[in-house]
Amino acid sequence: MAAVIVQHERLLVVSKQAAPDVFYLPGGKPEPGEQPLEALTRELAEELGVRPLEPRLLGDVEAPAALEGVPMRMTVFHARIDRTPQPAAELARLRWITGHEPGLHLAPAVRHHVLPALRHRGLIGTPEAN
Q1: Where are the beta strands (DSSP E) in the chain?
Q2: Which residue, 22, 24, 30, is CA-closest to 1?
Q3: pLDDT band at residue 9, thresholds of 50, 70 and 90?
Q4: How many structural domains comprise the chain?
Q5: Which of 5, 31, 67, 82 has its CA 20 to 30 A from that of 45?
Q6: What pLDDT digit, counting tens, does each position of 67-113 carry?
Q7: What residues does 28 pair with on adjacent strands?
Q8: 54: alpha, beta or left, given left = phi > 0 and alpha = psi -120 to 50?
Q9: What is the pLDDT of residue 127?
């Protein structure tokens, strides 16, 4: 499960302590018996100390996992959040991006699927907005 959180035409991405220079969508794997929105709510609370507001299913994204390179499928929800996020648990950093930042290493799912979809919908800023 992953969350697309956009504020001021920027997407929230996070990195993990194991790979602090690679950025992903916040979220994670469901525990046994956990429903998708339950998993997303738990992961966002653990990782960022936030609660998703009005989550809407965007769809499934298939792409290679950023570090392992193996095929990955993630269910993506678009949501607002109830407070300012703070990295916790296994997270190293968070950033708000347009995807045009030089030298930014994004997971393939974010770079090739999520950002183009958000640009197409007019939700993410342009390079001039940086």
Answers
A1: 2-4, 6-7, 10-16, 19-24, 52-64, 71-81, 91-97, 105-106
A2: 30
A3: very high
A4: 1
A5: 67
A6: 887 899 999 999 999 999 999 989 999 999 999 999 999 999 999 99
A7: none
A8: left
A9: 60
The count of residues in the chain is 130
CATH number at residue 16: 3.90.79.10
Which residue bears the tokens 């507001």?
Answer: 53
The pTM of this model reads 0.92
Nearest Cα to 109, choosing from 77, 73, 80, 78?
Answer: 73
Instruction: For residue 1, give Cα distances in angstroms to 35, 44, 103, 124.
Output: 10, 10, 26, 21
**Can you tell me the distance from the alpha carbon of 123 to that of 58, in angstroms, rounded to the nearest whole number?**
13
